[in-house]
Give the backbone structure.
Amino acid sequence: MKIGVCKLAMASPNDVSELERLIDSREIDPAEIVAVIGKTEGNGGANDFTRGFATLSYQLLLASRLGTSPAEIGKRIAFVWSGGTEGVLSPHATVFTRSAGADAADGPRLALGIEGTREIRPEEVGTMAQVHEVAAAVRRCLVQAGITDPKDVHYVQVKGPLLTPASIADADQRGKTLVTRDPNGSKPFARGATALGVALALGEVSEADLSNDAIARRFDLFSSVASTSAGGELKNCEVLLFGNSSTATSDFRIGHGVLKDTIDADGICATLRNAGLSFSGNLSNEEARRIAAIFAKADASPNGKIRGRRTTMLSDADINYERHARAALGAVIASITSDPAIFVSGGTEHQCGPGAMPIAAIVRV
Amino acid sequence: MKIGVCKLAMASPNDVSELERLIDSREIDPAEIVAVIGKTEGNGGANDFTRGFATLSYQLLLASRLGTSPAEIGKRIAFVWSGGTEGVLSPHATVFTRSAGADAADGPRLALGIEGTREIRPEEVGTMAQVHEVAAAVRRCLVQAGITDPKDVHYVQVKGPLLTPASIADADQRGKTLVTRDPNGSKPFARGATALGVALALGEVSEADLSNDAIARRFDLFSSVASTSAGGELKNCEVLLFGNSSTATSDFRIGHGVLKDTIDADGICATLRNAGLSFSGNLSNEEARRIAAIFAKADASPNGKIRGRRTTMLSDADINYERHARAALGAVIASITSDPAIFVSGGTEHQCGPGAMPIAAIVRV
Amino acid sequence: MKIGVCKLAMASPNDVSELERLIDSREIDPAEIVAVIGKTEGNGGANDFTRGFATLSYQLLLASRLGTSPAEIGKRIAFVWSGGTEGVLSPHATVFTRSAGADAADGPRLALGIEGTREIRPEEVGTMAQVHEVAAAVRRCLVQAGITDPKDVHYVQVKGPLLTPASIADADQRGKTLVTRDPNGSKPFARGATALGVALALGEVSEADLSNDAIARRFDLFSSVASTSAGGELKNCEVLLFGNSSTATSDFRIGHGVLKDTIDADGICATLRNAGLSFSGNLSNEEARRIAAIFAKADASPNGKIRGRRTTMLSDADINYERHARAALGAVIASITSDPAIFVSGGTEHQCGPGAMPIAAIVRV
Amino acid sequence: MKIGVCKLAMASPNDVSELERLIDSREIDPAEIVAVIGKTEGNGGANDFTRGFATLSYQLLLASRLGTSPAEIGKRIAFVWSGGTEGVLSPHATVFTRSAGADAADGPRLALGIEGTREIRPEEVGTMAQVHEVAAAVRRCLVQAGITDPKDVHYVQVKGPLLTPASIADADQRGKTLVTRDPNGSKPFARGATALGVALALGEVSEADLSNDAIARRFDLFSSVASTSAGGELKNCEVLLFGNSSTATSDFRIGHGVLKDTIDADGICATLRNAGLSFSGNLSNEEARRIAAIFAKADASPNGKIRGRRTTMLSDADINYERHARAALGAVIASITSDPAIFVSGGTEHQCGPGAMPIAAIVRV
């Protein structure tokens, strides 16, 4: 398996011109595309439609180039968008391709498994039913990626549904109980359940500790490599598992780390080194250019404090705390790598311990 | 002259308990306080009343301790607040004291001059009338601070009025023309005019190049040490000029720098070195603790791009670009110094060249 | 008892000039002031400090005129502010005075009882402990107001604490459990518990039906005359009970109604008639001028729909649903009364049935 | 000419299911659709992409049903969206069809002319070049609609480009000057120029009074029937002219009015009567059901005051004044008509006199 990684700038949520150009110039074979992960410039909340707009726009382009329908592209390619480009964050898409890749590599290389769950019903969002569906999908991903040791897994991106006014109405009609009736408030449950699904599949938590009551509450249970999001445009969960496999022949390697807060520059540097960059002091321009993609989660610390100082993220009624956190972490990462086109998404329920945040970097070998 | 510098955490805009405690423990003599510069947790816009609330709260405390009225404290002490603690920024106040300071120092030390202008009428906001009043106040500050060479000036904080619905109505009644009728839109003019006042007094621009039309338009004219803000609670301009003087005997020294963008970690490090810290690679905890205060301006780049990547600051109708910029720069500075209680304020019209931003650091000797 | 009612415009949260003028002209005797209810121009959320700023500003004025301290004024006078002047809502304060009032009236007239609870601890916010404290205060208010039949009660305003980062930290330190850890999310619990306290005292619900689990959940339990709010600046609950009493000799009468949604013009007109205005079709200017004050609650309907049409209040991540609801209802009321200085506050948990909203009007006899 | 009018609810910006259903049930012939005017649930600002998403979604549906491309649909059908469903406003689309319509009617009936201008270059946005292009298109619309007397014109909807970061960059590259460099700030100029184009074509202003300097400044020049908007997704202006023509045989008639402020209930009732409803006092349910569509503009009054009371629309840095104004007017209209699916868009530059706002109603005969 050979995984290709290509970062594309976007001038708006429906700007697919960079991919168009790369297909035209034969730098990317559209038939090999398996996943698109990106940031769009919406508010990142329940009424952020930039994600759906971007998906539809890429689907239309690829459907036209591959002679099929947008719906078919939707089944074939996983689209994961995080809304909200606060601070310096730059709207972009990272396109992943997968091909046979004949040549052998001289060590473990980037591998990727992609699996979806069945549709998650509104009443299952944020419950053990969702945990189990995600765990099963993660296990299928491991097989697909050719990874046997969970230690070789560095990043598991899961995107699943949140509750929307429409799905709440649907559950009401069928007399079903929901974990919450607040669309924006359903995100912690939705993200938490999918993260625990990853943790369960990778042996980071034991099934005995899990229950509906633990979700979005027992934050001592977590995965260190999960990055989960929830959006109104999805009905099932999509799992993208990234790791290094000796059966892969990609030009890339992936590493990960854990950030202790949103200004943890040392943690960012350690992650880059874990992925294979070597530097002390400042990152050189040459090494920085080897970074293909960075994926990080940003969150407020549980008590709102950073390094002993009070921040106002958690009490701000104008700007959601996720937006504050993304703005901060995105800027710190970009100050090290010189590239603001980073995937930083909000909400870390059950992703690392309370206050900590997962980060992964893909680096050209 | 001996200048004292003390940073106080604030749990809300009206929390003056830290100053109360320091007065009670005789660590600060309230009679020596000459200025308070801080961040409050409002939105930073025309309807941000946290600044006025903080001023009133400190005035009440000091009036009670000094046996005088809040209004008298207002005349005696300069209060400069910047609203908006986006990202990790932490609400705080830095209190400056000034005393005779008998002992001689072994080199130039922190000096401070404070002067106010007469009341600026609404029709003068953003015009040459304001430029000239500020320039005159800056010249008086130089004398007061014992600084003869403009090169020894590192930071000139000016706060002046913006246009408010009330001041617009007042001008209308008197038949006067304004630079704009939009309260939030008057900030660039207000900040620009005061910055050009600083530049004029320090010889950074020549009078011949200045005119009403140049204000908030000819951005090739600027001061490299001015940091100006505008708030609805002020009617005159207050100038606080910081530099190093051989006649001062403070325990502090000040330095400054210019940031090329909001993620310019190198520029921040250079500023800390300019102020007297010595380090290569990461700042040690010991050196970091020597930092008494950092004052920086944050802004979007003119074309919205950072290191070639598009940001969405300038087109965001939900969150003002100043808030994005403050969130980014605040986080990057804190990632280096480990302290989110930084004065980062928005809007750099005529403060450094287009896209660049001034920053100053006060460091314990 | 004679209750005076006077509405004052405010140019900013700290503008007390209208009250100053009325005291100077002897139209209001500051010693007779017992309550101030008003709207301030903040965001209405957990970080809205305009309420505290307004309280401090009025306390300072009254302390100076009455030769006492702001803290003493705080004990003597109840201040109730609702932040958020969305749409056309106009910042203002309605000042209530109470005096002996020698002359007998020709029927029931406006009466007012004001009582506070003890301090509500963070762990009690949103629990039965708060319900009982409020119910006891309501009963004391009835006695004070000279009202024996609960049917004569038309409006009970309760303001109490919400959870703040500081109070959450305090509870954590003492090992106490909270109903939620989200400051903005604590408002439904805080408002719900105080509303149920009113309902309990007025016999609208039976004690047997109440429990911690019912609060902010069993919305079939409610008071039709309660209007409750929660703010970070309060530690105890303040109850202001308004009704008509035959022992009162005020120039005013109060009436109330129930709105079926935020555009219920008929419900508004019915309320005005209940308070004593007589009109069919449009309200005449003469009758409109008899309206001294209107107090209403605004909320999104539970499913977000109004008259069968979907609104986007509940899924909007930029603007809180309370702000949408206040904007809508405030405009509809003002379109009938021609006065945008109305007290419209958000959140109707246990105040009227689901989707319905309480409204009261005070009218000059 | 026979014009059909059909209002469709939308569950999200890409929900075209109602139109799909009506096409399937043959209630609407997709080949007859000439225009779609609607509200989407974005923020209404420069970064509101819900408008483009809705357009693309309808284009895809219609392209599939008509066997053509989305681009072709874009040329054939005018799409006009206003973003921002504040308060109770409900996302929806009103679809207009045009067919031959054989039968003669017993009086003037709804007629519609639709014309586009050539592409407006960034440097032309907000200038006389745009005024002239729009005026020419309006004149072509009159011919198309079979209207000779401008008095029979009741509503002219124009949508054109605003400045975006991309178009500003384009102008910079070609060395062109713009009316402003602020994307959100370009809306007043863009809307103003197109409104003056309407006024010029309908003889409401004389060419001699017009100049670049008059645009967004001389507000005594205006059209009483223009309703103009600006969005980043457009490059040319689209003009939709509605009036009554004796050559039309539609089942509808249109009327218009002028609102003196955002709470002008009398003005709304007068408009409904002008369109053909007859009622005194409250509108009956039967008459209300005859209303097919309402189009209104909402704006803050120039001094921010409504009926002598200060509102905070113009100084609010969190919520744009257009959003406040739309929330208010939308609720007042819905309180009269019982239908929150109303087209209320913001910004009235040169549309009615300062503070006044145009409104039109289409009513079933």
Notes: Chain B has a mean pLDDT of 95. Chain B touches chain D through 28 residues (CB under 8 Å). Chain B has nine helices and 14 strands. The first helix of chain B runs from residue 17 to 24.
